[in-house]
Amino acid sequence: ARTAERLRQAVRRQPIAVGDQAVPVTVSIGIAAREPLTHDADSLVRDADKALYAAKHAGRDRCCLVRGGKTHLGPA
After folding, report:
1. Phi/psi zone of residue 61: left (φ > 0), alpha (ψ -120 to 50 degrees), beta?
2. Would you kindly state where each structural domain of the chain is located, as residue ranges?
3. What is the mean pLDDT of the chain?
4. pLDDT band at 22 (very low <50, low <70, confident <90, very high)
5. Residues sharing a CB contact under 8 Å with residue 59, sequence separation 6 or more, in sequence order
6. Comparing C-alpha atoms, which of 17, 4, 16, 18 is closest to residue 51?
7. Any idea which architecture 2-73 has in CATH?
């Protein structure tokens, strides 16, 4: 989750030049933590997707972790 947060902050610090304007960019990141009983990739992808939509729903420009069925939002 720390790596995802550092990536989110790095993206936010780098606006994209469009013509003569600097356009701010943000990113929402969904993270799924592998649990001991999670053995299939489909479950991990499903949890990561759930985390991504939770991050977007919370206002975007966030990282969100799903671990053990619980959603944990990072700071915006």
Report:
1. left
2. 2-73
3. 90
4. very high
5. 76
6. 4
7. 2-Layer Sandwich (3.30)
